[in-house]
Amino acid sequence: MTPPALSSSTARDAADDPAQWMARTLSGFGLVFQLSRCRGQLRFTRVSESADQVCGVDAAALLHSAAHFTACIHDADRADFDAALQSSAVHGLPWNWEGRILTAGEVKWINIRATVSQPQADHTVWDGIMLNISHTRRREAALRDMAAVLEQSCEAQRQRLARQLHDHLAHALAELGEHLAVPPPAEQRLATWQRAQQLARGCAAVADRLAVQLHRATLADGLHAALRALAHEVTAQDDVRLTLHCGDLGPLEAGTARQIFRFTEQALQAIAGLQPGLPADLRVTRQPGLLTLELLTSASPPQSAAVCQTLRARALLLGGAADCGVTADAGWRVALRVPVAQAEAAVGTQLG
Question: Which pTM value belongs to this model?
Answer without folding.
Answer: 0.44
